[in-house]
Amino acid sequence: MKKKLLIILCCMTAMGLLVFSYVNEDEAYVNKNWELTSDQMKNITIKGISQDVDIYLQKGETNQLLLEGLMPVSFAEKLADFHPGNEEMVLDFATSMGISVAKISGDKLKMIVRTTDETNVEKLLVQINKGNVYIEQDKVFANSYELKTNQGVVSQPDQKSVTQGSIKVELGFGDITVNVFEEE
Fold first, then answer.
1. Among 1, 159, 126, 151, which Cα is nearest to 57's?
2. 77 with 30: CB under 8 angstroms?
3. From CA 21, how far away is CA 87, in angstroms rounded?
């Protein structure tokens, strides 16, 4: 009986160490830029990560998505596999079975969504396990907001009566902040 108990204890310890090493992996610096068409800007999605994300929605001279900062190595390696679809750009860090593994990162990831026309971005979707989401957008973007967190604080500007796009954020744990700024 003692031998079986010792074997079970050793197996559980080994599994615990394996899980701990998997969710606490090394980080890599990423600086990735995708040039997108107006159609590819329609739906921008980032999901399956567990770290703070600062998202900047800006009007500019080109349509592009930029991602910069430190993230788990296995997620950084996935960036090469992400390519825009016909009417979307999806950054999905979940496993092939659709499971989102909480790989912990204490660093912020910065995402810039820059578009030539504020009506190009019809939907921005953020689905994160754990981490704070900060979104800053130019005043020219008239978005509706659907912001949900299981545990945290949500801060957003007033909804406009006429909207042209939507921002949807779903968090397991963390705060959501949306700010609107005026161009100078």
1. 126
2. no
3. 37
